[in-house]
Structures are given as C-alpha cells and as structure tokens.
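hey so u asked for the seq, here:
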Amino acid sequence: MVKNVFATRWGIIGVGAFIGIAAALLQKFGNPGNMGICVACFERDIAGAMGFHRAGVVQYIRPEIIGFVLGSLVAALSFNEFRPRCGSAPVVRFILGMIAMIGALVFLGCPWRAVLRIAGGDWNAVVGLLGLAAGIWIGVQFLKNGYTLGRTQPSPRAAGFTLPLVMVGLLVLMIIYPFVEGQAKTGVLFYSLKGPGAMHAPLLISLGIALVVGFIAQRSRFCTMGALRDLILFKQVHLFSGFMALLVFALGTNLVVGQFHPGFEGQPVAHTMHIWNFAGMLVAGLAFALAGGCPGRQLFLAGEGDGDAAVFVFGMIAGAAVAHNFGLASSPKGVGPHGIAGVFIGLAICLFIGFFMGKKVQKR
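ran it, structure tokens below
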C-alpha cells in the first residue's frame, strides 16, 4: 500500500495552496476577475453554451469543469477508488443542486470563488462567506438530529462513467465547434462575445491545470463545505487547513501579479447588496450541507463513480438555466428582479428537506 500523502495535514495544505495559486494564475491567463476558478459560475457558463439559457454574456464551455471530473476519474482508477454507486434520494439531490446554484448566483460565486474574491480584495465576499458558514451551521443542526438522504447502492460499472463521458462529449463539441471571432454561435454551441463568458484562459492551460486539480482533490478529499462542517461539528481543522491555504496562497499570488484591489465598489462580477450576498450564500451553504459536499467536491465524487453527486451536478446546471431564464441571478448592478423571491423559496425548500428527511420522521 502506497501512503496517500495528499490526505495528510501537509498534503491537504499543499492541495489548497496549489488550487489558490492556480486559480490566481488562471485569472492572469484570461479568466474573469476574481474568477480564476468558480464551479457555480463555470457550470452556469456551460448551461449557456448549450443554449439552456440565453444570457449572452455567460456562454462558454469551461474546460476547468471537464478537467475536474476527468482528473478525479484518473485518480480514482489509478488507486482502485472508482466505485460506482447511486440511489440515495436522487430527486432531492437534483432539487438541492438547483437551489444551491440559485443561491450562488444571487451572491455571484461558489464557495471557492467567495475565497478567491476575498483574496483579490473584494470585501463584499466576506459577507457571502459569513452567509455560507451560517447555512452550513444550519445544515449541521439537521445532521445532529439525524438528517440523512439514505444509503447509496452499488451500481453497474458503466453507470459510474456517465458524467465523465458527458464531460468528454462537451470537450469534443468544443473541438468540433470552436469559437469563431465575432460569431455568437458555432454549430450547436453558443459563445459570449462580451462579458465574463468571453474571458477565458487558453484551452490547454485551463484543461491541464484542471486535470491536476481534479486528481489531487480526489486524493485529498478537498471540500470547502466539508472544511466548515467539520470545524463546526467535530472541531476538526484538517480540511479547514486546506481551505485556509487556498486563501493565503491565492492572496499571495494576487499580490505578486498585481491582482489585489481592495474595496467594496467596482469589484469584478460582484454587487454590494450585502443582505442578499449573505442570504444567497446562506441558502447555497445549506443546500451544500444537505447534499454532502460543495460543488467542487460533487464533481470529484462524480469522477470516482458517484451517481448521486452527478445528479447534484446536473441539478446545478438546470438551476443555472432557471436562474437566468426567470430573473433570479444577480449582476454587477444588483440582485435580479426575482432573486429575492428565489432566495426565500430556496430556503423554504431546504428547511422542508432538512426537517422531513430525518431518520425519526422517516420511521413514522
């Protein structure tokens, strides 16, 4: 047996450091400001590229998402950890994925981007991070009271390859229908001509970095939601040390390359409506806690054959379409016309799931 160095204390710190440096450099290479890596934003862009929503400024198949899944797949296959399983409340997980995405798009970022925004000097993200912690804290209370989505069951090996094959398909589509300058649609794919969707690092750089992140994150079990959950529930700092390393090394890299611009106003792809920054991430954090992982962790789990995590990922992509088609997503101008209603509805659904998916309630 070869020791899994990535799962050690210094291993998880190294993983967080690599992700922080890589994310800052991806921004330098062309990704949007304070968005070197954002799982929610990038899945939103993929939904737009497929035509599931028509917000023209956020349409691009992000190779980072593809790389995360395929890198995790390679790691799982290499170390005999590819274990296809599924069947644990798939409909609930799909809904939680949708709600998590809606909350994240009200805030404008996933947990990873919340940290990266702080590392870039965006103090609005501090409010969002507090909301994330509050949502996870609520989720922990449900966990303490017996909340569960039930047990997964082994599934056919082919089923475990479902999401990785979808990601390979997306990569093939990018190759067959590449971006053409000045053209908003190439074949079946939509491309942004302006806005965040038009800002991206070169394909091979993005894909290469993401493959490495997917590999080491699968080995280390890196998870931002899990870091806060374990800190609150068990007072364990193992995952949290990786979380903090991401922040520290992203901040350091931003200082070196000149990407640190502190303040509240004028931050890239951000707004200053603090109540809804907090509330959006509270809902997202609660959904992540109820589903058992942050959006990055869900991609890594799906790469190792977890069909329930894949359902959550598809839920997030569907949630992105709903958020933009129904005016729930925010913009730098502020919360969308129906974003506040989306936050309250999402919170109500999460609370319903939390109360009625407990072991005691299910036995009645």
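The CA atoms of residues 231 and 237 lie 6 Å apart. The chain has one domain: 8-363.
lmk if thats what u needed
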